[in-house]
Amino acid sequence: MSQEKMKAIGLYKYLPLDDPESLIEAEIDKPTPVNRDLLIKVKAISVNPVDTKLRSPKATVEKQLKVLGWDVAGVVEEVGPECSLFKPGDEVFYAGSIKRPGGNSEFHLVDERIVGKKPANLDFAHAAALPLTAITAWEGLFDRLGVNTDPSKNINKRILIIGAAGGVGSIAIQLAKHAGLEVIATASRPESTEWVKKLGADHVINHYNAFTPQLVNIGMTNVEYILCLNSTEKHWSSMAEAIAPQGKICSIVETDEELNLTLLKNKSATFVWEFMFTRSSYETDDMIEQHYLLNEVARLVDSGIILTTVTEKLTPINAGNLRKAHAILESGRTVGKVVLEQF
């Protein structure tokens, strides 16, 4: 019996976006779930900086189609023999694992421990905008920075979110406000400033200028928490100056330069990385925490506390539209999230 096929979008060569072979459509084998895998019928996907970074030009040539995409909303088609959290027909959303093929395909395999129930109040497109950014923002705030989820414990505490208008920042603002923090967001353009204010930022400063003088102008000398979502090395000295004694800085952006950690010493300040693929890549003992946090995000969405962050929707899911979505991200001026729906 011949192997059933499915549509997928991916690459063999790592090329500039203006080359039509940078992302192509192909027919590949439809996978079969094993162990704790779910086979998902993909309804909508979203793009993230990780997609454009992995697709960026280099000499490598893949023998098999390399499928990207780490934001999916869809329906459980089939479950592996060890699954206990989901059943066929369940509507789900998730980001997946960077160690496995991405979700830019008609069907996709994912471990159930990193999957959440789709928010009931959202369609698939709006749900697909959330997983990667929500996991990153949640882990950055609550697991890495150690922000308390109880608002009564965060009275008079402040967080500076650098690059707040993008996908992760759009969720982080809302989660930080829900946790009771005073939020200072950075933005540099009228449309991004308006966006972060709409999401609940209390103050907006410009990330092209030093932070401390701008903080002083709004009545504060420092902040207890900093979440850096843009150019860690560029903002490093400014962050070190703005962080409060015993404060915490978390970044999601890798750096090509060495960071001078000594700048934090006299303040006994903490620096920590957040990478939302850590749990799935290493299959950590607490990997299932992503299942729980996505379910909590879905609850917050359905309660009207968290708003989805879609700013552009493309239909259908094909190579041309995916190249267009990558181009929007590569412009470096993205506000919110770009999603694609329907194969």
Automatic annotation (TrEMBL):
Keyword annotations for this protein, in alphabetical order, are: Metal-binding, Oxidoreductase, Zinc
InterPro entries attached to this UniProt entry: ADH-like_C, ADH-like_N, ADH_Zn_typ-1, ER, GroES-like_sf, Lipid_raft_assoc_Zn_ADH, NAD(P)-bd_dom_sf, Quin_OxRdtase/zeta-crystal_CS
Q: What positions does the domain Enoyl reductase (ER) occupy? A: 18-340
UniProt key word Transferase? no
One function term, GO molecular function aspect: zinc ion binding
The membrane-spanning stretches of this chain are: none
Statement: the UniProt record of this protein carries the keyword Metal-binding: yes
PANTHER family from the xrefs? PROTEIN AST1-RELATED
Similarity annotation: Belongs to the zinc-containing alcohol dehydrogenase family. Quinone oxidoreductase subfamily.
Q: State the name under which the record lists this protein.
A: Zinc-type alcohol dehydrogenase-like protein
Organism the protein comes from: Terribacillus halophilus
